[in-house]
Amino acid sequence: MTYQPLSEVRKSLRVDWYRCPMKPGRLRELSRRSDAQGWFQAGGHTALFILTGALVFGFWWHELWLAMLAALFFHGTVTSFFTGTAPHELGHGTVFKTKWLNKFFLYFFSLIGWWDPYDYASSHTYHHRYTLHVEGDRENLLPLEPSLASSFMLQLFTVNLLTERGRTFGKGGLISTVIITALGAVGLVPADERAPINEWYRALHRDQPDQHRRSVLWSRLLLAFHGGVLIIGIASGLWVLPLIFTLAVFIGNWLSYFVGLTQHCGLRNYSRDFRKNTRSVRLNPLFSFLYWRMNWHIEHHMYAGVPCYNLAKLYEEIKDDMPAPRTLVGAWKEMRQAWDRQRREPDYEFDTPLPPSANPEPVDNEERQSATSELERSIGELAPAGLKEG
Questions:
Q1: What is the pLDDT at residue 171?
Q2: What is the pLDDT of residue 364?
Q3: Is residue 331 part of a domain?
Q4: What confidence score (pLDDT) does residue 300 get?
Q5: Residues of the chain with pLDDT > 90: what percent?
């Protein structure tokens, strides 16, 4: 399929999003950032990484191999959320009130997680502005398969170097994406492969060349850092260090996959109602913490300037106008049923029912009722310079 250049999409595509109404002033309260809450989230996730990594090292040191493998599984489960999840919210710039703390932790999690915050900032800006309108958002191309294939499950519960856990963005594996990005800018791979992996990256690079250049430099830094960890581990005989710092993100990906795929899988393209194209799920406190509260995903898309730690409060404010959050098991049943039907009916999309108390989904020709404020449209500080709205 041939798409318009993204520069043309920005001129021609306008999505008049429906947002649940709120009490005057309440959105501003919920949008306030807190360093204390930021430290609890980012610092707490880092502390879990250090704790589980220390357990891996301690069991390795004492040659308690089964205990080491168990600790490595939990360490990988914690670290797998360094890829995409932690940098996602920090990329919005809404976690800490102090801006440099957002940047510091963004780069820290991205470094350990083999994550590219530059290409992702471009991609995710489009994802928020044009969610599931494929001319301007190909970060997730529906339909997505909620795979439970035995070979894939084996990778998720052990080591997964080959796939990016169901997402269109980065499919082919994180390491290969980083290598192609790092090499492509200097002509060391064929020209038609310089942009990493897929059409969406190429479109982003043509649209935001400055971000692409930063992405290339960052990818080289990733290779230098993780190559250095590997060299130190081999030279010192501490071969456990690459397991803790470099490979952990590829170990025990099961939880990040099961919670992350629920965001849009099986839902509707081309809706201007986030209640129809996005899904929220209820999680236990630990899973929600590791997922940076992104289980409240409708709320995040509807008001993306609200920090992750206030999303549950946001739901309470607008719940009468919202579908009930699914359970994780319920979401997966819904996705699997939708996928089974999509294989027979390729155009099928699950239509999320709204409660009787909710406002109906706006129709395509409905006139705009009121102007949308800058605070309501906010996506935090996600957009790179080339995508700032004037």
A1: 42
A2: 67
A3: yes
A4: 98
A5: 84
For residue 339, what is the DSSP state? H
Low-confidence stretches of the chain (pLDDT beneath 50): 166-172, 185-197
- For 352-372, b/e burial (b = at least 16 CB within 10 A) is bebeeebeebbeeeeeeeeee
Distance CA 140, CA 277 (A): 12
Count Cα atoms within 13 angstroms, Cβ side, for 210: 6
Give every CB contact of residue 313 below 8 A, 6+ residues apart in sequence.
30
pLDDT at 165 (0 to 100): 52
Q: What is the pLDDT of residue 89?
A: 96
Q: Write out the residue range of the structural domain in which residue 44 sits.
A: 32-355
In a domain, 61, yes or no: yes
Q: Indicate the angle between helix axes 174-184 and 209-236, nearest 10 degrees.
A: 120
93: left (phi over 0), alpha (psi -120 to 50) or beta: left
Rg of the Cα atoms in the chain: 21
**233-260 pLDDT, tens digit each:** 999 999 999 999 999 999 999 999 999 9
Question: Hey, what amino acid is at 204?
Answer: L
Reading phi first (left if > 0) and then psi (alpha if -120 to 50, else beta), residue 325 is in beta
Burial of 65 (0-12, 13-18, 19+ CB in 10 A): exposed
One-letter amino acid of 155:
Q
Tens of pLDDT, residues 130-161: 999 999 999 988 999 999 999 999 999 999 98
Rounded to the nearest 5°, which phi and psi values hold at 268? -100, 130
pTM of the entire predicted model? 0.93
Cα gap 221→201, rounded to integer Å: 19
- How many CA atoms lie less than 13 Å away from 237 in the CB half-sphere? 1
Best CA proximity match to 264, nearest among 254, 276, 252: 276
Residues 135 and 137: their CA atoms lie apart, in Å, by 6
Structure tokens at 160: 């997964």
Asked if residue 112 belongs to a domain, the reply is yes
Joined together, the tokens standing for residue 328 give 């994780």
How many domains does the chain fold into?
1
2, part of any domain: no
How far is it, in rounded angstroms, from Cα 352 to Cα 264?
Answer: 11
